[in-house]
Design a protein that fits this description.
This protein is α/β, with parallel strands linked by helices. The protein is about 35% helix and about 25% strand. It has eleven helices and 15 strands. The strands form two sheets. The chain has a nine-stranded mixed sheet with strand order 14-13-12-11-7-10-9-8-15. Strands 3-2-1-4-5-6 form a six-stranded parallel sheet, with helices on both faces. The relative contact order is 0.15.
Length: about 325
């Protein structure tokens, strides 16, 4: 039997750091061996919580021959440096979104990982969810007709209830607010559902809490043939507010409006709302990462999503700051 991979948790800045440390401890193919954080007090607390060693010197930790991989949940502005050092040390990397503050840095890390034979995976969990699988199947079957409009919204009450750390309001460390973190999920789902890259991005940000970053965001993406996708995020609203609305030329799909149900109406689905079955959830990004490590393969689909997600977030931040739509020029507009 192959021994479990030795994994270190790098950074506990992000609120999901503990979740990924638990993933490491619970997965049969991995074991948590150490913690590093640039804030030693935070790092010592995390190491004590998970019953592992705290290592103050990141380079010393990465140089350990017995260490196979790392999870990275530092502040976003540290991703390029920390992930780059881990890859250079030959360690496999599982990281929180977004991959990097810029598209160029993201592409650089993807290429660096490829050259070094390192499995790099970004946590984009909603690509694996049951409703996503069901929606993809319907889109592939063409039963919606042509998708003309989409709206995906994700929100929680982090800054209303006081559980979202204030460090998420640091524009330098976080590289943005609600859209850059929470809004990533609606963004990559929008891209996936439209099966194309957006042509333009237009964003409006709001801050009812008057922090230095936005606490609510609404973004409109235009796609080929006049199709529109709206994705939204907020950290000052009712928790559990996740909805998907897909409008086609023949039918409509809704998920999350008043319950965790996928319903359809129109065309082959009939003239009354009809609840659709959901398939089993596919393996999540952490399990995919472990499998890529064992198989010696590259997570091409995940990394393509990650780079294009960065492109969308950067464009949204630019649009909100400038008050104008941002054009995204590419050689190809199709999504693999």
């Amino acid at each position: 039997m192959t021994p479990p991979l030795a994994v270190a948790a790098i950074g506990f800045w992000h609120v999901h750091a503990g979740d990924y440390a638990k993933n490491v401890q619970e997965h049969p193919g991995t074991t948590l061996v150490a913690v590093w954080d640039d804030d030693e007090q935070r790092g010592h607390a995390a190491a004590a919580e998970f019953g592992v060693e705290f290592v103050a010197d990141l380079d010393e930790l990465l140089a350990r021959p017995g260490l196979d991989a790392v999870t990275v949940t530092t502040s976003t502005d540290q991703h390029r440096d920390v992930i780059g050092r881990a890859i250079a040390a030959g360690k496999h990397v599982f990281t929180e979104k977004i991959l990097c503050p810029t598209v160029a840095e993201s592409e650089e890390l993807v290429e660096l990982a490829r050259r070094n034979g390192v499995a790099l995976v970004v946590s984009l969990p909603r690509l694996s969810d049951d409703y996503t699988g069901a929606i993809e199947r319907i889109l592939d079957e063409g039963t919606l007709g042509e998708l003309t409009y989409s709206r995906v919204r994700l929100a929680h009450n982090g800054w209303v209830a006081g559980w979202l750390p204030e460090r998420f309001a640091d524009p330098e460390a976080a590289i943005g607010g609600a859209l850059t973190d929470l809004g990533c999920h609606p963004a990559y789902l929008t891209r996936l559902f439209h099966r194309a890259e957006p042509l333009t991005i237009s964003a409006t940000y709001g801050s009812v809490t008057h922090r230095a970053v936005e606490d609510s965001a609404v973004v409109t993406a235009s796609f080929p043939d006049g199709r529109l996708g709206v994705f939204e995020a907020s950290v000052v609203t009712t928790p559990g507010a996740f909805t998907v609305e897909l409008r086609g030329t023949e039918a409509t799909l809704l998920f999350g409006f008043g319950g965790e149900r996928l319903v359809a109406k129109g065309g082959r689905f009939g003239e009354e709302w009809r609840e659709l079955p959901l398939p089993a959830r596919r393996p999540g990004p952490f399990a995919q990462w472990v499998q890529h490590i064992h198989d010696g393969t590259i997570a091409d689909d995940n990394l393509r999503h990650a780079v294009e997600l960065t492109r969308m977030v950067v464009a949204a931040n630019e649009s909100a700051a400038s008050g104008r739509a941002v054009t995204l020029a590419r050689e190809s507009a199709s999504v693999a």
